[in-house]
Amino acid sequence: MGLALNIVIAVVIAFVVWRLGLFVLRSIAHPPEPPEEGQLRRVNLRYRCSICGAEVRMVQASEELPEPPRHCMEDMDLVAPPDE
User: Fold this and answer.
1) Which end of the chain has fewer CB atoms at under 10 Å, N or C?
2) Residue 21's pLDDT is what?
């Protein structure tokens, strides 16, 4: 009886893992739709991490001067002024 129970549990776990894998693959295959026109604005901002020196260039944002991105658990520093 113990062997049959182990087989049933293994089959159920395999089925759950298989379904979860299919869900993940389908979500990757069908990315979310892009936002509607006019929701994002063109910006030209550059940020630099003060800890490691990594740089990020932001070209679209939902507002004129968005919150700075985070890197190394800290806010990045604005390198290029927004009016540049």
Assistant:
1) N
2) 95
Number of structural domains the chain divides into: 2
For residue 26, tell me if it sits in a domain: yes
Assess whether 23 and 46 both reside in one domain: no
- pLDDT value for 16: 97
Query: Is there a domain that residue 45 lies in?
Result: yes
Give just the sign of the alpha carbon dihedral 27, 31, 33, 34. positive
Q: Rounded distance, CA 43 to CA 48, Å?
A: 16
Asked whether the whole model's pTM tops 0.70, one would answer: no
Q: Which two tokens stand for residue 21?
A: 């894998």
Burial of 45 (0-12, 13-18, 19+ CB in 10 A): buried
Q: Are residues 48 and 74 in the same domain?
A: yes
State the DSSP code for 37: T
